[in-house]
Please model this.
Amino acid sequence: MEVEENIWWVVRIIMLVFVTGFIIYLVGATRDLGTSTFGLEQAAYTARVIERLSFTDSTTGRYYSGIIDLSKFNEKTLEGEFNPKAREFGIKVSLTGIDGKKIEGAESFYYNKNEYEFVEPLTFSRPFVKRNTTHYVLVRDSKGAITQGKMNVVIVHREK
Model:
């Protein structure tokens, strides 16, 4: 009788060790899951860039997010738009014709160029991240002529 009771205690202890180990594993696995919001942040930054560069109708005050105003396509348009002290990131914006040819008056520009040039070559590994998005847009020049184009927005960032 005593031997049978001892066997049951050994089985109980082994089961307790397995259950405790499983609980510790579950807690550790959920703790190590990191959440990164940078994809969402980049999408928001890209949307803000597009909004600031978009054509605004002077009569209605409405902006057209699919039409890029060539007169706004420069660094000065984005100055003061983002707070680089809150997030260290850099943006490069370029605009070409739909066929890949250069659009006259549409020179590529940077926001926070120093950060962009430092981080961009390092984005092949963590903690550096790069997101490159291409948007098919219409480009409105100073004469009001509209042409088709592709706007490329590259955002680089250091994860902390």
Q: What stands out?
A: The chain is about 35% helix and 30% strand.
